[in-house]
Amino acid sequence: MARAPGKPRTTLKRVARRMADPAPRRIGLSKQLGAEPAPMPGFIEPALASLVADAPKGERWVHEIKFDGYRVQACIRDGSVRLLTRGGLDWTEKFGDQLSHALTGLPVEQAIIDGELVAENELGASDFSALQNALKAGNTGRLLYYAFDLLYLDGHDLRQLPLSRRRDLLGDLLLEPADPVRFSEHFEASGDVVKRHACQLKFEGIISKSLDDPYRSGRAGIWLKVKCSSRQEFVVAGYVPSTASGTAIGSLVLGAFMGERLQHVGRVGTGFTQATARDLYERLEARRAATSPFAGRLTVAARKGVRFVRPELVAEIEFRGWSSDGLLRHASFRGLREDKPAGEVAIEVPKRGPEQPEVTGRG
Fold first, then answer.
1. Do residues 316 and 331 share a domain?
2. Which residues belong to any copy of the ATP-dependent DNA ligase family profile domain (predicted)?
């Protein structure tokens, strides 16, 4: 929760500098933060949101816009910063100097911030395709970083504090403008109302978070996501060449893991620019495989014209639902997800959230 306008700002960095002796400095900051001193950890596995059919209800929950970008953990230490993907890859150089300079200018000595890196489209909504195009062109000036959680601050691990307290502290750090770093605002209105407005404004959906809980890595059921449309990541297991060009793809053959078994989920043949179709052709030709990577045998129709590849690339796909035989309907390619390993891609099914009925099937 952001500090009310006009309220005096207490900067932890300034408090620490006023304390000459290390012992009272630790005691003072610990009391102010409500957290015990701890060494700065390395990469922290991110908290992940579970897909549900409807937003949760009640005062326990707050709701944020679901951004369509790369999850990024910003690790600030003594004037330098590392920007890590959700899998722990160091992409600091890839994201350019502007973001790093803004983060190192924050009033902290050490911090770990959780957020999302995005690029916005002409409507002002985050857009994954726009982000990929900006990174490919080296146009990092278009990037924005929406910070939504604070995990570590000046010698103190904050993960055991409730979300409400962590967001108070994060709001303190971001009171002064530090473009392209922005505070991800939350809404305390009813979740279904927030979701309806988010969908009207062409956002991907919302994330609902429990105010009273600590930060928990993985899917702990205290962060929930509700989407405006069906969109998931799938593994690229093959492709069909374009009929108009010998050096471009016409469609991708997709799958998702069920345990260690790769399950066929259909094809996607729209959403590609000519440049993207050629780029995918080059990437996939380098990964050609002699046999199908799927656990089960495909039908004659599903195998027709397919060149199989090693299941290493992950594509984000928007679609309208599932057919009766378990295949994607009206699928459209959104981009490659180079921040997510293929082995973690599974079919997401909306689960029962708080005060919600059980949801069965895939839709």
1. yes
2. 136-269
Largest CA distance in the chain: 76
The string of pLDDT tens digits covering residues 293-307 is: 999 899 999 999 999
Structure-token pair, residue 257? 């893991």
- The total number of structural domains in the chain stands at 2
Query: What is residue 34's three-state secondary structure?
Result: coil
Where does a domain end: 197, 227, 257? 227
Residue type, 207: I
Residues marked active site are found at: 66
Count Cβ neighbours within 10 Å for each residue of 12-45 and write b for 16 or more, e otherwise.
Answer: beeebeeeeeeeebbeebeeebebeeeebeebbe
Which tokens is 326 given? 């378990």
pTM (predicted TM-score): 0.79
Distance CA 182, CA 290 (A): 48
Give the pLDDT confidence of 175-194 residue by residue, as tens digits.
Answer: 887 889 999 999 988 899 99
Q: What is the mean pLDDT of the chain?
A: 87
Domain assignment present for 169? yes
